[in-house]
Amino acid sequence: MSLTVEVGILSGRTATVQAGLDEEVNGLTRRAQTVFGVGKGRLLDSSRNVLDARLSIREAGVQTGDSLTLHINQIQLQGSRDPDRSAFAAILGDGSVVTWGDADYGGDSSAVQDQLTNVQQIQASHFAFAAILGDGSVVTWGHAPYGGDSTAVQDQLTNVQHIQASQLAFAAILGDGSVVTWGDADNGCDSSAVQDQLTNVQQIQSTGEAFAAILGDGSVVTWGDADYGGDSTAVQAQLKNVQQIQASNGAFAAILGDGSVVAWGHAPSGGDSSAVQDQLTNVQQIQPSHGAFAAILADAQAVYKFKPNYAQDAAPALKMSVTVEVGLLSGRTAALQVALDEEVDELTSRIQTVFGVGKGRPLDSSGHVLDARLQIKQTKVRTGESLTLHINQIQLQGSRDPDAGAFAAILGDGSVVTWGHAVWGGDSSAVQDELKNVQQTQASSGAFAAILGDGSVLAWGDANFGGDNSAVQDQLTNVQQIQASNGVFAAILGDRSVVTWGSFLFGGDSSAVKDQLKNVQQIQDQLKNVQQIKPSEGAFAAILGDGSVVTWGPWGDADSGGDASAVQDQLTNVQQVQASRSAFAASVDDETVATCGDARAGGNSSAVKDQLKDVKQIQPPAANGVFAAILGDGSVVTWGHAFLCGDSNAVRDQLKNVQQIQSTGEAFAAILGDGSVLTWGDANFGGDNRAVQAQLKGGCLNSG
């Protein structure tokens, strides 16, 4: 039994995917990644809750018609706190972790690598790392005495909500509001003296050698080195109704409910605010540096800095502003003041700095991207609004011809960087100023085309390969999707019509060759309400709204897939089309397959027609043009050039409960339900994985 769900990504692209009720969420996630051609991610339900990858679709509560979102996480990078010795830990999109750098400082996580799955957050001390897993447990590694070994408190580390780190110790807030500490006693590991007070903890901050916790009643508990903020007895009576605490390297500063500020700890690090105490009223936000603090006041007339032994100063600020809450999808938030005449682009840069993340785009509370060129007052942003910084993964597109050697990368802020062979798209300088808020790029063999946020299209590269779209520029409005063949681009517009440009030899202008094309006027008239376009090297296939398919190419060339007349009667209620170099394969709603094009490239499936029943998915074909279909029972059928891995008979008995397939030029690899990987085809192209079979248990698959 299976169901159908719609899966989307944050760019707006969607696809309909079938899933078996007993299939694991992890298998559906992998297939969604394959459909969109994106990196590792996690599936969210319609309420934005992450689906547990280990559950079956049935257990996860997914229903037919549900809308799921594939959240492709940006890699989250955490570096050790010691600037002189470096180690790094990166959370990948699927929640696994990669570490590198000085092994003594946490750069080697091999001892706990198997435990580092579904990681939500990582914190770093000077010598160690601590990771919170999806089930609320904690994994640590690095120098054992300084937080790298949590075995003494491991039984207590359950339902962990947040971790904070000092130089040599960690403190974890549990779901019940209690706190667990470990690491070096002199740096805040020993909280025994205040353990009874650590109840209903809301927030923890740390200096280099001490911790401070805000409790639910607004009071504060501190521990650690007294000289660095671990002893707050001198100001304890003032620490009532505390809203927020910030920390420098050696001092703490707390904002109270009435907007006043209390500071304590190492005076040269900001622990004494007496020189500006009268001015610290109605404070909205405090920003720390290594050895000082800066406070933003509600009237936005000035920003006051306090750091004894340095001249006090007040830097005038803009007189009209709003206060907004900004956050990341990870849950981290911060309050920022924004001048009304500040540009969104400038606000975005400040948000990136606050969170220490890469380029992204701010979304309003409705999920709409704020135009980077507008001023805040020109947007609908108001005081108290919640914004989200969406940090996009870099999207990389390479030219279709490997000999052309050009690349285009969409950065997190929607700009584009190109490199490689200048003539074939590696030089985008002619359109660089216009490449803003880019949503998608596609590549032919010698050019690129980009969809902008307003639905227009920019093209660059060799005009003979689609790099010049000036002849159809007026038609390219409200573009939803672009596909490319070797020398042609085809764009689907909002009204589901199609606009093509590029070399007529590859199907770029059907009207220009209508006298050579059978029923060209009929085909051209049918290109309305198009749902999806798939290119081969020299032809296109379009799925229409009624489930029928229209193909076109150079003079309706059957060997390129451009003439589907022989199977036109079968092309009804088509759900999916896949393309090889010169053939198409269509999955029909009765779970059969129709093919057209060059038989050697998979265009003739008659030899396996009787086996192609209950087809759930056709995999993107190998580069040589061999297709593979996953059936409802988890078995696989392949067809195409037998010598080039179209014959899977040698492993047919083992191809059971297949979850995902990937292909290289002349080989396939399949992930089975038990997490093992089965390969076939040319050993030189990855068809023999015996040397790494033991490592491929339950692993993710990448064809490279």
TrEMBL record:
Listed name of the protein: E3 ubiquitin-protein ligase HERC2
Keyword Repeat set for record: yes
Listed InterPro entries: RCC1/BLIP-II (IPR009091), Ub_ligase/GEF_domain (IPR051210)
UniProt keyword annotations, A-Z: Repeat
Presence of keyword Repeat: yes
